[in-house]
Amino acid sequence: MQEDHANRPALSFLSEEDKRRIHQAALQILRQTGLGVLHEEALALLNGAGCLIGEQNIVQIPEVLVEKAIQSAPHEIHVYDRDGRLSMNLGGYRSYFGTGSDLLYTIDVNTQQRRRCMFEDVRLASKLCDALPNIDFIMSMGIPHDVPIPDIYLYAFAEMVSNSNKPIVFTADTPDDVDDIVEMARHIAGGQDRLQESPFLLHYVEPISPLLFPESAVQKMLRCAEHRIPVGMIPAANAGGGAPITQAGAVALANAECLAGLVIHQLKNPGAPFLYGYNSSTLDMRSGVVSYGAPEYRLTDTILADMARCYRLPCWGTAGCTDSKVVDAQAGLEAMFSIHNAMLSRNNLVHDVGYIEYGSTSSMEMIILVDEIIDMCRRFMESVPINERTLALEAIGRAKVTRGFVDDDHTYENWREAQYQPKRLDRMQYDVWESSGRLDLYDRLNEEAKTIMATHVPEPKPPEVVQKIEEILERRKD
């Protein structure tokens, strides 16, 4: 588990006045413009709490409900592994990284060709992430092409829990998907009480920007509130598409949508765990794609973290992804920029590690590359210990003016702790690199991906749990 380290660097762009204006803008949107809520139970909850319900189910939410929801939501979300050990303490200044979900394509590790994602790819990606030390949670990384469409999310969840012991952020199509996934999770955790005490999963839900909460999205959020399963209602309010082209306008809209989700969620079950956040990049006006490598995305993530700390809510984030179609210099540049920013901004739950092609395609090599980047950035974020041993005054005294430190005892005693040693980056001398096969970084990443997929053995699940998962999947066929 990470320490909080609030005394270490934290990036912030907002003044207290900026935060106040963003918050007030969101309150004005909710109070005056309102939003469409297409769900009867949610409308009843809102109406009973004093909201105005107009034509076409446009709901106007008063400020007092927003403030009450912010106060009732937990300041931290504890997420566990499958053995009940605390893995992520979401909130404060802690950052955790994981993959993404729902991609149509993947880059085949054997042919290096882009193809449709298959069921086997979800399994292999889960195994890979289970083996990588800097990947803290997993998502499915794909929409498998060879699974019946109504069952995609259930099968993906089953593969993730079967091939990794790490926390899972899951997606779902319908409320029935959520119910079946939670039923699986109950059996894995050892019962409903154990699951609520030590949840190992968190649900990702999206409204439709601008300002529409469709029936299925609201129902899934309410199911999670009822089960006290952590959930995030995460708007994708991308500037120029579902939100104003200006970042301030996009942030104000996304903040309003997120706070509206929080209000509904807390009305259903006050104190249930809710993840605050939004995906707000920019719709590129030349290419027509939502850019995952844009600096605007990193800016809104930083603003998001600022607002989350203002509300004292755990927050979402995005990093480790690229617009490039292959794992190349652009991919490395955009991934490093985003990971470093997420860590400095202190986003709590940071997803989309391994996305390439602006969130359309997964790459196992990209996941491993970002595992290395996270490791490097975490080393940068560590404090430099200042004490008698690290100041090395005795060693400096021995060196005097002309003697160096290569063969000094202080060097032998401290170099392993003092130096960061990369796992995949090349520091070899040229002749050693040449005699080792002249492999570039992509070649090394590809070899590692194939080796992990072939050799890593995830912790097996008890037979009775495996049987119950199979029964739930089989029930879907009836």
Structure overview:
With 478 residues, the chain is of the alpha/beta class. It folds into 2 domains: 69-381, Trimethylamine methyltransferase-like (TIM Barrel); 388-418, no CATH class. 47% of the residues lie in helices and 12% in strands. The chain has 18 helices and 18 strands. It has helices at residues 16-33, 40-48, 63-72, 119-131, 152-163, 175-189, 192-197, 215-227, 247-268, 295-311, 329-345, 364-381, 388-391, 393-399, 409-418, 430-435, 441-455, 463-477, and strands at 35-37, 52-53, 58-60, 77-80, 86-90, 96-99, 105-107, 114-116, 168-170, 201-205, 212-213, 231-233, 282-283, 290-291, 316-318, 349-353, 355-356, 361-362. The strands form 6 sheets. Strands 2-3-1-11 form a 4-stranded mixed β-sheet. Helix 4 (119-131) packs parallel to helix 5 (152-163), helix 10 packs parallel to helix 11 and helix 12 crosses helix 17. The mean pLDDT is 95.
